[in-house]
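User: Sequence in, structure out. Go.
Assistant: Echoing your sequence, followed by the structure tokens.
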Amino acid sequence: MKTLSRILALAALTAAVMSTSARAEDVKAGDLVITQAWTRATPNGAKIGGGYLTIENKGTSPDRLVSGSADVAGKVEVHEMSMDNGVMKMRALDKGLAIEPGKTVKLAPGGFHLMMFDLKSPLKQGDKVPVTLEFEKAGKVAVSLDVQAVGAQAPGGGDHSGHGDHSGHMDMKKM
């Protein structure tokens, strides 16, 4: 009985370690900490995809996410979705996205996000997509987006669409 308990405990520990290592790793660049980097799987033939992540500025001066690039895409832009007179609009942030000192900015579905154009191949669930982010001060930073399921609303596939915050995430409700 003790042997079975030890085997089960070892199996549980192994599963926990494996699931942790499958997630995007935190990336530190100067005063910035980038976490929870992910994207959604895309169907065959899709030419665009979104990228999501959290950026925390632990410093005393602002920085700005100005652009991105990825081998899998022809172009990567920083975008914002917003409501305007009841109409959802998406636009590129030509001057980038400010990351104020002591603040955290979340790029998530329905708010700020990376827009990957001209995808060269489908994004497949379980894969990792290397992306280079460019910041005004921190410079170029390599991150890896974990590819989640097609309809995922958060890393790990959980649906947190009803839990907005004030850091760029917009609640999206089904009509």
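User: And one key feature?
Assistant: Residues 18 and 64 are 34 Å apart (CA to CA).
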